[in-house]
Amino acid sequence: MAKGAIHLTPAEHETVSTAVAAAESSSAGEIVTIVTDQSDGYADVALAWAALVAMTALTMLSLFPAFYLGLYDRVLGDWGREWTPQGIFTLAATVAILKFLGMVLLQLWRPLKFWLVPGLIKAARVRARAETCFKVGAERRTHGRTGILIYVSMAEHRAEIVADAAIAGKVSPEVWGEAMAALLKGLRADDLAGGLVGAIEKVGAVLAQHFPRAADDQNELPDRVIEV
User: Fold this and answer.
1) 15, 89, 161, 204: least CB-packed within 10 angstroms?
2) What is the mean pLDDT of the chain?
3) For residue 217, what are the CA distances in angstroms to 205, 208, 212?
4) Does domain 10-41+118-227 sit in CATH 3.40.50.300?
5) In whole angstroms, what is the distance from residue 91 CA to residue 89 CA?
């Protein structure tokens, strides 16, 4: 998984942190924001595409052997070649290997690799990564289990909101729709910081309604954006 990409400037980091602090000032909720370059390497998907291309090449060779063997002879100028079973199998294996390696190399170009990943797989892996980050960084780390994660995965163009037990018990996932809409609006406008701030404000309003801040409430999780 690629790490280390920076998507927010220091000033934008400060803007988002200020928004988190403001949202938490009126609730017992603890908001964590994480931005990652990508949620998975999708090596298995890349290998699956390479295998599919190789198998397709073998299938076409088996369906139209005369055409492809003739094409081979014309390209190499080997007009008098008599094809033996061993020669045919060697050619088939060579074609399959070359197709497989070629497809693997093509997918080293990141835009193509991510374009080839089905949307359902992207969504599932972004969700899984968000839940993992939540378990590590927020789950059960607050006194009242009121942590909530806003997670953005840039390469997949996906985002998730994951809430701790106390919040999930009172607020249905559909309630976060406005927060997600604000986040996605910013992302579509190439304004990640603005999208995060909009989502934080919406989340903060919901938390203030269901979990008002107590007089002795303490800040238990960092307000800063975490980039991984």
Assistant:
1) 89
2) 87
3) 17, 13, 10
4) no
5) 5
